[in-house]
Amino acid sequence: MYRLAYVSTAHKQVSSSELQYILEAAIRNNTAANVTGILLYNGASFLQVLEGPEKSVSEIYARICADERHSHIVTILKESSSRRLFEDAPMSLQAVPSDVGKLPKGVTRADNIDLYLPSALPGYLRQILKSFNTCKG
Ligand SMILES: Cc1cc2nc3c(=O)[nH]c(=O)nc-3n(C[C@H](O)[C@H](O)[C@H](O)COP(=O)(O)O)c2cc1C
User: Fold this and answer.
1) Which atom of ligand 1 is nearest to the CA of 67?
2) Whose CA is nearest to atom 23 of ligand 1?
3) Residue ranges per domain, the chain?
4) What pLDDT score does 127 carry?
5) Would you say the C-alpha torsion 127, 89, 30, 133 has a positive or negative sign?
């Protein structure tokens, strides 16, 4: 099991239909590739965790990196792991905070991201995800 996380800058205020496209493409492709994860959007930046077979994660990440809906992509985590942490969804999409505008069906408004994180998440990863929209850490 391989895990990768990155942050990126949205090209502009991403529209509801673009978010919907991203989520639908992620669910379709990640399901086929046995990849799971979480995607956070705060109105300006994305933070995504992808996990699964290394080859699948790398192929999907290469496509994501070529996507013009975002730029300034910075890989913040690459690790191998004995277990899958995000096992519930091929990709879930949370908007943090909740005032990022109109959201399509399937995108959760997450005022408290902690509520949407798997309980088995190790502290360092929980901290990275919780810190996404705050300077408090
Ligand atoms: C922030 C962001 C996250 C994305 N996450 C995924 C993802 O997890 N899986 C995926 O297949 N595509 C994801 N995409 C979309 C891909 O960049 C690409 O548009 C898509 O994989 C093309 O799929 P298709 O060939 O089935 O149309 C993401 C795009 C953005 C901007």
Assistant:
1) 17
2) 25
3) 2-133
4) 92
5) negative
